[in-house]
Design brief:
It contains 10 helices and 10 strands. The protein is α+β, with helices and mostly antiparallel strands. Helix 1 runs antiparallel to helix 3 and helix 7 runs antiparallel to helix 8.
């Protein structure tokens, strides 16, 4: 997963403004506009977020990011797939009309942003707003991953709900934001798409969220774990040595310690000769290596690439780059 993510995220495409048969002034404006695009993407950390979105798409099936405004700044932030919720019946064809996102804010930061969202309010309303944010719950119920449970931070969940308008001139689109104690924002939403960017490794047959690399190699991976478990049991059960003890001797193997040895009693003056067999045949290890290779083949990545190695037949840098782009 890390190898695929690094190979994909190394490309950083930039939008470019172009002209057609334009004069010098128009070409200069287009060049300045392209520079603005590059600076804006760098300022909001788009490419750093893109690398994390690609990684999430590979291991979880769906990588997501969200775009929104905080004051006079445009924020482009990563969100995890389990922080986004849609109606499964509404989203069975991949096009839901409503979406619910959980964002995490520091309590003091949220208090300042809430003052901006509230606009012109009285001093009494401002105090009530601060009190509601102060007594807001800092955790989600029935949630395994919950950063608000940390006693060293004061991060609270903020629910963002978006409903798309029914048509170009419809006015039923809404965007609301709230916490456990009150509603922070309720505005009309006019855009025809969600402010969410979604990347799926494999598009789902039905539903909204995709499938990742673990889903493709799940069966092979379980087989590999089963073989590795048998190999571990064989190493544990096979004795590492045999101690030859005379039948009249009072030797006790348990006094040596917790070792995987076996005790063999013999009579006479010459002890027998013992041979310790390997725990498993060499073909068993070859089978494990073959299953590991299948995991790379199904994911579309060579095992040499995952180990930062190249094919010995590739000599030039151009050939190595072409092979890397091909993967």
């Amino acid at each position: 997963v890390n190898t695929l993510a690094n190979k994909t995220a190394k490309n950083k495409p930039l939008p470019k403004a172009i002209t057609f048969r334009a004069g010098y002034a128009a070409r200069r404006r287009a060049r300045d506009l392209s520079d603005f695009f590059a600076g804006d993407l760098k300022n909001c950390g788009a490419f750093k977020t893109l690398a994390m979105v690609i990684r999430d798409a590979l291991w979880a099936g769906t990588g997501m990011s969200v775009d929104f405004e905080e004051g006079d700044q445009i924020i482009h932030s990563q969100i995890l797939p389990w922080e986004v919720d849609v109606d499964p019946r509404e989203a069975q064809h991949g096009k839901p009309r409503s979406m619910y996102i959980t964002l995490w804010y520091d309590r003091d930061q949220l208090r300042e942003l809430a003052h901006v969202w509230a606009g012109d309010i009285t001093e009494e309303e401002r105090k009530q707003l601060d009190e509601d944010i102060t007594r807001a719950e800092n955790s989600l119920k029935d949630t395994v991953w919950d950063p608000g449970k940390d006693d060293l931070s004061d991060v609270i969940p903020v629910g963002l709900g978006i409903h798309l308008p029914s048509g170009p001139k419809a006015k039923d689109g809404r965007i609301v934001m709230g916490i456990s104690s009150r509603l922070l924002m309720d505005q009309e939403y006019k855009r025809t798409r969600f402010p969410v960017n979604k990347l799926c490794f494999v598009e789902p047959i039905a539903g909204y969220f995709g499938d990742g690399v673990p889903h493709d190699i799940e069966g092979i991976y379980y087989g590999l774990l089963d073989m590795a478990m048998k190999w571990q049991e064989a190493n544990y059960m096979t004795p590492t040595g045999v101690v030859a003890v005379h039948e009249n001797d009072t030797f006790n193997l348990e006094r040596i310690g917790n070792t995987n040895w076996q005790e063999a009693r013999f009579s006479g003056t010459i002890p027998p000769t013992f041979q310790t067999l390997p725990p498993a045949d060499g073909s068993f290890l070859q089978g494990i290596e073959m299953v590991k290779k299948w995991c790379f083949d199904f994911s579309g990545l060579s095992q040499m690439s995952a180990q930062s190695q190249k094919d010995p037949s590739l000599k030039s840098g151009k050939a190595i780059r072409e092979m890397s782009d091909f993967e």
